[in-house]
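Please, structure for the following, as tokens.
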Amino acid sequence: MINIKVIPNAKSASINANGGAEYSIRVDAPAYEGKANKRLIEILSDYFKVPKSHIKIIKGISAKNKLVEIDI
């Protein structure tokens, strides 16, 4: 489980580890119709080298602060 602060509509995607299980992630997709969440899962999949199906947003589906579960 990790805590994530999502920043949508960024010029490029990036991940910043804030220490422990907290991350700030810039997403290069709009927060519209789930596009930012979909892109967030793609970014996390590449970063942690796990399939997208192993990543689940537990809390904050429509918020900037999210709780995400990653099955490794």
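The chain has a mean pLDDT of 95. The domain at 2-70 is CATH 3.30.1200.10 (Conserved Hypothetical Protein Mth637; Chain: A;).
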